[in-house]
Design a protein that fits this description.
single chain, alpha/beta, two-stranded antiparallel sheet
């Protein structure tokens, strides 16, 4: 299977807040990530606090990110919402702004049936021309998409081209490859699972960790791709405590605290999220220094 256009370290920037969106600080953060060598940028995901943005703020983050990236790497914009209509609005806006793909998590208040999930993605796919990354993360969305469902959508909805799998279940990733005959690229969204996922054939790693330590993330991906698994293991062992900490403490909260600790303040997360407490900051300081 040839390497897809979107591959490698897909970095998720946080969204800096000031009086609304601090677009200057966001541009500086995105520039920092691209200059570090990440392979793609994914704004307005969970790390970017998409759930807490209004529509003008969403548009500002998308516009700022795409303008800053300026075509140097692909941009995968998160566009998820509880309604199909608002997800379509965000997806069409992202496409018009120049995003290379959109990422969609089927967020729901009511438990969605398989028929409703398929129609949600089909309706969005009918409204846009760029690829869709189907994002499975039942811990945050309340919706669990099986490998069988994901492959079914890949085979029946033209725009569904890739899957971000965040359950931390390696057997699901292998099942996606098996069912699709290797045609459906999957991306690891479970930070602590990254080494095993890359070894199992993940096309990339969707992660917030490059906000704090970009080079080891890139080196880990390159080492696995080069077959140097001993080096990859050493890099993973070094990164693992940080990866586990930022996931356990909430990505927006911990990454924003970490950026402040390394001298790149981006403001606090938005309520109801709270800044990391002093005990957590002390632990994180040891992991990023």
């Amino acid at each position: 299977m040839s390497e897809p256009k979107i591959h490698g370290i897909i970095a998720y920037p946080v969204t800096p807040f000031g009086d609304g969106i601090d677009t200057a600080r966001l541009a500086a953060l995105v520039e920092r990530l691209v200059s570090a060598g990440v392979h793609a940028i994914a704004p307005v995901g969970s790390t970017g606090e998409l759930a807490y943005l209004d529509e003008p703020e969403f548009d500002a983050v998308v516009d700022t990110t795409i303008a800053t990236v300026a075509g140097r790497v692909p941009v995968v914009a998160g566009v998820s919402d509880v309604t199909t209509a608002k997800t379509i609005r965000r997806a069409t806006y992202a496409q018009q702004a120049g995003a290379d793909a959109v990422m969609i998590l089927p967020v729901s208040y009511w438990k969605l049936t398989e028929r409703e999930i398929i129609q949600h993605y089909r309706s969005i796919g009918d409204a846009i021309d760029i690829p869709i990354m189907a994002y499975n993360n039942p811990a945050t969305s309340g919706v669990d998409m099986s490998p069988e469902l994901l492959v079914k959508m890949f085979e029946t909805i033209d725009n569904v081209k890739m899957v971000k799998e965040s359950t931390g279940d390696l057997t699901r990733m292998r099942r996606i490859t098996e069912l699709s005959g290797g045609r459906l690229p999957f991306y690891n969204g479970s930070n602590p699972l990254v080494l095993d996922a890359l070894k199992a054939g993940a096309s990339g790693w969707c992660t917030a960790a490059p906000n704090l330590r970009p080079q080891p993330c890139i080196d880990l991906y390159d080492a696995v791709r080069a077959g140097d698994l001993e080096k990859a293991q050493l890099l993973y062992d070094d990164l693992k405590p940080l990866l586990e900490f930022i996931v356990a403490g909430g990505l927006a909260t911990t990454v924003k605290a970490g950026l402040d600790l390394i001298g790149f303040p981006v403001g606090d997360p938005r309520a109801p999220l709270l800044p990391l407490d002093e005990q957590g900051r002390a632990q994180l300081k040891a992991l990023v220094s």
